[in-house]
Design a protein that fits this description.
about 325 residues; Rossmann fold; Tyrosyl-Transfer RNA Synthetase; 2 domains; 3-stranded parallel β-sheet; about 55% helix; about 5% strand; binds adenosine-5'-tetraphosphate; nucleotide-binding; EC 6.1.1.2
Length: about 325
């Protein structure tokens, strides 16, 4: 069975973008692949985190993964820092990554664009750690949103570089992006990605938002003055984003939605999307609360880390041998 791996950072409350761009695919792929899904807490600390919030966000993230239907009997679900080999291989790959490559990473450039000081070295070398996450498990496919695709491309280059230098060691992975919704945009600035660390809470639908509050956010989403519901990313990015959200949650095609709202105004359209989002969150949160009460999270993570750790240990032994680290 081929392997699939992906992770999400517990760097804030998860957004609808994280679901539509990433988690939705994890759930679809779990029957086809041997899955490794982790909580990327080592990535999260590349920017400042409050330890209490980090802990709470980590637990929420696991509960949400389970509420969305990730099945622990099919998926190895674990916390990144529980498998030490991520850091170990991360260092090795750091030593094989060129600064020129890291300088070209658009996510680093975006995240540091407005910051002049206190940018951590970890944020800069984040892509090498991400490559380690993927290569440790010989992942064949990595489902990600568009923003992370460049990092998977770098991972491919690193795998090939290492294999060429030391002999066949790593599987070269393929990124997989959703056909619709690979980049859900901010509700307040549809030129920008919906991001959990956005300072404006109105820009994001958080998965744990009060469903009625989420509906209001949709109602106050920035659109345009054209007044026609149609998919036009260049001239109507806000309306196009709402079409994407609706289509991803309900399964209706964009064309069906455009036909449905022909001759109708943005108020009607937003009300429709708002109702969908409200119902989606109510259902999700009911499951999320039940999972938190069930107390199953700890045992799921323990088993996940054990399974992942066994594979990572073997891979790291192989890497160490190749590097000349393993003397006996
Ligand atoms: N707006 C989005 N649309 C589609 N996919 C998205 N993803 C994130 N935002 C969107 C995808 O979610 C997965 C997990 O992302 P992450 O938390 O590891 O890192 P990120 O891409 O940096 O996500 P955020 O929400 O923007 O976090 P912060 O604000 O902390 O940086 C990835 O597959 C990502 O593509």
């Amino acid at each position: 069975m081929k392997r699939c791996l992906s992770g999400i950072q517990p760097s804030g409350q998860l957004t609808l973008g994280n679901y539509i761009g990433a988690i939705r695919q994890f759930v679809q792929l779990q029957d086809e692949y041997e899955m490794f899904i982790f909580i990327a807490n080592m990535h999260a600390i590349t920017v400042a985190q409050d330890p209490k919030k980090l802990k709470a966000n980590t637990k929420d993230l696991v509960a949400l993964y389970l509420a969305f239907g990730l099945d622990p009997s099919k998926v190895n679900l674990f916390v990144q820092s529980d498998v030490v080999q991520h850091a170990e291989l991360g260092w090795v790959l750091n030593c094989h990554t060129y600064m020129g490559e890291l300088n070209r990473m658009t996510q680093f450039k975006d995240k540091t664009a407005k910051k002049e000081t206190n940018i951590s070295a970890g944020l800069y070398t984040y892509p090498s750690l991400m490559a380690a996450d993927i290569l440790l498990y010989d992942a064949d496919v990595v489902p990600v949103g568009v923003d992370q695709k460049q990092h998977v491309e770098l991972t491919r280059d690193l795998a090939q570089r290492f294999n060429n230098l030391y002999g066949e060691t790593f599987v070269v992975p393929e990124p997989v992006t959703a056909k619709i919704g690979a980049k859900v945009m901010s509700l307040q600035n549809p030129e920008k990605k919906m991001s959990k660390s956005d300072e404006n809470p109105k820009a994001c639908i958080y998965l744990l938002d009060e469903p009625k509050v989420a509906r209001k956010k949709i109602m106050s989403a920035v659109t345009d003055s054209i007044g026609i519901v149609q998919y036009d990313l260049e001239n109507q990015p806000g309306v196009s984003n709402l079409l994407t959200i609706q289509s991803s949650l309900s399964g209706e095609s964009i064309d069906e939605l455009v036909a449905k709202f022909e001759g109708k105004g943005y108020g009607d359209f937003k009300g429709y999307v708002g109702d969908t989002v409200e119902a989606f969150l109510s259902d999700l949160q009911e499951k999320y609360r039940a999972i938190l009460q069930s107390g199953e999270i700890e045992s799921v993570l323990e088993q996940g880390a054990k399974n992942a750790g066994n594979i990572a240990f073997k891979k790291m032994r192989k890497v160490k041998k190749k590097l000349g680290f393993q003397l006996f």
